[in-house]
Amino acid sequence: MLRITPLERSALQMLASGKAEYEIAGGLGLTQHELDRHLTTLFERMGAAGRSEAVDAAIRRGLLFNDADPCEQS
Asked: Where does 1-74 have alpha helices with state H?
C-alpha cells in the first residue's frame, strides 16, 4: 500500500482541483522548485507520468476522499 504524507495529500488535492503549480507551492509554503521535487518523487512512487495520471491513481487508491481546499484551511 502506498503511504503519502499530509503535504503530498494536500498537493494531490490541489492538483485534482485544477490549481496551477505556483498556487500549490504558495499554498503549501514551498518554492516551485521544492514542489517540483516533491511531485516528481510522488509521481515516481505512484508510477504516474504526470498530473492527470497521479490524480487518477490517487482517486483509484482511495488517497483523495474529500473536496476540501488545503489552501483555504485556517
From this structure: 6-16, 21-28, 32-46, 51-60
Number of domains in the chain: 1
pLDDT score recorded for residue 74: 41
Return d(Cα 69, Cα 16) in angstroms, integer.
10
Please give the distance of CA 13 from its chain centroid, rounded to a whole number: 6
**Is 1 contained in some domain?**
no
Give domain status of residue 56, yes or no. Answer: yes
In this predicted model, what pLDDT tens digit does every residue of 15-65 receive, in sequence order?
999 999 999 999 999 999 999 999 999 999 999 999 999 999 999 999 886
From CA 62, how far away is CA 56, in angstroms rounded?
10
